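input
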Amino acid sequence: MSAIGVVSSCSCLCPGVRLLKPGSQKMSSFGLHTAARCAAKDYYEVLVLGGGTGGIAMSARMKRKVGTGNVAVVEPSKTHYYQPLWTLVGGGAKQLAASARPTESVMPKGVEWIKSRVTALDPDKNCVWLENDIKVSYKYLIIALGISLHYEKIKGLPEGFHHPKIGSNYSVHTVEKTWKALQNFKEGNAIFTFPNTPVKCAGAPQKIMYLSEAYWRKTGKRSKANIMFNTSLGVIFGVKKYADALLEIIKERNIAVNYKRNLVEVRADKQEAVFENLNKPGVTEVHQYEMLHVTPPMGPPDVLINSPVSDEIGWVDVDKQTLQHKKYPNVFGIGDCTNLPTSKTAAAVAAQSGVLDKTISLVMKNQLPTKKYDGYTSCPLVTGYNKVILAEFDYDAQPLETFPIDQSKERVTMYHMKADMMPFLYWNALLKGYWGGPAPVRKLMHLGLK
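output
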């Protein structure tokens, strides 16, 4: 399971690929790929780093602007995953295969696919370095490298995943283990964790908890399960309207929430999870578990740490309204790898792609960007096998809802939107550069008032 410490580009890149440091692995002989050709060019008008949601969507949009052969995507993974589906995979409601497609099939026609990893960025010279010391130059750079998963920062992981009764919906290697642990549950503590770091899809750690509770109710095991949500945060959710709704559900379903608890160690052979009390640094508590769902610590990809394009932590340093880099005007960022102060979700990437498209169009014309990103993001909070609370909000953690109804209520319609409509929209509109979020729908639904 050593491949579990991974990088995921903009919420959807294959999480089985570790981002390597310069020189740590030789590039395969395939090198570059476009329609079975190799080694296209060493310069592109638009170069995109990362073939996840943001990278593919923006490459499709850019190809329509600058033409065939002038856009390239640097992406090592052969498989592209729609990760939002993994909540339902972990809960047994969807098959893992439904979330996967070959990267070649989602790469826009006319866009060069560079099958390699970026090892360094040199924005002062308008170039990046790939494996085997390959240099590629650009006129415009879009950084969409996603976020890294760090299971290894929890003592006992990732090797602990070799044992039963433990899973994680955040990795392709462990999401099916969640479903097995859920099915094989007998009696005892079922613990769900939230780390002390930024995460992608901040609602996912508790979505699987609600699905598990519903499954055990259905199978007659609920009375034998002591369900615990151990979160490093001090609130259940960052937007009060939805937090209040979730707390009602938690109370009704007799779920225990322990705030300011951070998972620091897993003793999988003993079925023990060790948590630090963040209110009392250094003080730990040990819980026995019959099932453990781990949400790993996350952070910026290694290549961005101490990079000229990044802030002091390692996130790409962009203007929060235009997504243009604060120092380099021909560099842009999108998705999980940026320091945009909003929740890291595929829905956020969709909204950002529409804004970034307009930003780059104006920059290419030597004009100042005018389109502003409001921080829109969305989290379909799955609370059962046919129920979802559709949370939508902005930079200020204020609801920014698409429909003229109270979206803090559990609804069957929203579940089907999450399970069926959103995947279709993802594959057929967002990745093709035709979906920039629900703002036009929202305006129509609210008769232009919002």
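quick obs: The radius of gyration is 21 Å.
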